[in-house]
Design goal:
With 438 residues, the protein is mainly β. The protein has a single domain, classed as YVTN repeat-like/Quinoprotein amine dehydrogenase (Methylamine Dehydrogenase, Chain H, 7 Propeller). Helices cover 5% and strands 41% of the residues. A hairpin with a 4-residue loop joins β26 and β27. It holds the Pfam family PQQ_2.
């Protein structure tokens, strides 16, 4: 007899998981323990700090942490960074209030992945944002050459286990996948691991599976995905609930793929939607909007697409023409989609129609949204801008304030807002911590 699936709404499921997580872990509402924040969507529970007249209230501290595009993480009183220098990746733990270094751990690592092809001035050093599991205190890092490491933050970063994805799974160089010739690119490993319960899920891009699940405590393999695409170059897999089933969405080198990640069907492909880009530049992380996923890229696509997901597959809901993001991941908030790439853009979530665009943003940009409905945009070589969302400014781009945080190199890493502190980093590893409240 076939067992019926009980449908649980994504909202109810999310609320339950959040409540349980806060009861049994040390996570706080203003923590930023994952790529794109507490809920992995660049939505902050904190106010921007705008008081009607001023925004940035001063600089608290500065530091240098090494080369890379990895974003900071904040958990409780600590902030974590990963950076490359002197042929090694280093994991730093600082006091978030003072910038004092508490501990540091390092391991040998090359500047580029072993099969690196193209754009090496942009993709080098520590590219993947670490993943912090607040339940166990483990911090997981993924190096550009496939080195996975687990560190115990409760014991000054004590090393717990390690493996190399190339060595274990014989991952080969990413092929040329676009119709246009001479567009092959391989940036090494860029995506953040994803902790779900006892699992550490990584986009490996191996012939055995695009996603591979490991036991977070010792690195032993739990399952492999049916999909066997090569890994994309995005920020990592994103949790999504599809008709009550826990899944992960990932933009591979070839497709948007949604995979079940819990229960007896873990590893099963739920939906696939083709999305191949010249230069292998599926860069922007997929964004979940209820039971749909938004993907975007430039080059031969130059489009953004909303894709409905069900247990029966994927279907296109809308697709823009020429309205796209080449790098910045889409941010979904209160019926709109925002991103910062060649301007700050706002698109209606239901229709895909662009609502407004503005601002001086080039190819380097990211944004987060605050609890008082403002966007914090980090762009160019370290420019911060505070912008009204469409909820406050529905018809035009409205800029409230700007501030130059850093000025040396590309502002690829996302900013982090935690407990009134705004943490910024550039690709050279220069870090500054700014106060947005008195």
């Amino acid at each position: 007899m076939k067992t019926a699936r009980v449908s649980v709404s994504p909202l109810v499921r999310t609320i339950c998981l959040v409540v349980i997580g806060m009861l049994f872990t040390k996570v706080k509402a203003d923590d930023w323990p994952h790529w794109r924040g507490l809920f992995r969507n660049d939505v902050s529970a904190e106010s921007s700090g705008w008081d009607g007249k001023s925004w940035i209230k001063g600089e608290l501290w500065r530091a240098t942490v090494g080369l890379g595009s990895s974003s900071p993480l904040v958990v409780g009183p600590h902030v974590y960074f990963v950076g490359w220098s002197d042929n090694q990746d280093s994991i730093y733990c600082f006091d978030v209030s003072t910038g004092e270094e508490i501990w540091r751990q390092s391991y040998p690592s090359p500047l580029y992945g072993r099969f690196a092809v193209g754009d090496q001035a942009l993709y080098s050093g520590a590219c993947s944002t670490p993943e912090c599991d607040t339940a166990s205190g483990l911090l997981f890092t993924l190096g550009v050459d496939g080195d996975v490491n687990a560190w115990d933050t409760n014991e000054d970063g004590k090393h717990v286990w390690a493996l190399n994805l190339h060595d274990r799974y014989q991952v080969s160089q990413r092929p040329e996948v676009a119709k246009r010739k001479r567009t092959q690119r391989d940036y090494g490993y860029t995506s953040s691991p994803l902790v779900v319960g006892e699992q550490l899920i990584i986009e490996v891009g191996a012939k055995e599976g695009n996603l591979i699940s490991l036991n977070k405590h010792d690195g032993t393999e739990l399952w492999r995905s049916e999909n066997r695409d090569e890994a994309g170059h995005t920020g990592g897999p994103v949790p999504i609930t599809v008709e009550g089933e826990s899944c992960a969405a990932v933009l591979t080198l070839r497709n948007l793929v949604v995979t079940e990640i819990l229960g007896p069907n873990a590893g099963k492909t739920v939906a696939t939607y083709p999305w191949t880009t010249d230069y292998g530049n599926n860069i922007a992380t997929a964004a979940v909007a209820e039971q749909s996923v938004i993907v975007t890229s430039a080059y031969n696509h130059s489009a953004m697409c909303r894709i409905g997901i069900s247990l029966d597959g994927a279907s296109k809901m809308w697709e823009t023409d020429g309205v796209a993001s080449g790098v910045c991941s889409p941010l979904v908030h209160k019926g709109y989609v925002y991103w910062a790439w060649r301007g700050v853009h706002c698109v209606d979530l239901e229709t895909g129609v662009e609502v407004w665009v503005g601002g001086k943003v080039g190819s380097q940009g990211s944004c987060i949204v605050t609890s008082d409905d403002r966007l914090i945009v980090y762009a160019n070589n370290g420019d911060l801008t505070l912008v009204e969302t469409a909820g406050r400014s529905p018809h035009q781009y409205t800029e409230l304030a700007s501030y130059t945080a850093l000025s040396k190199t590309d502002a690829w890493p996302h900013v982090v807002l935690s407990d009134g502190r705004l943490l910024c980093r550039d690709r050279d590893g220069n870090v500054c911590c700014l106060a947005v409240k008195q």
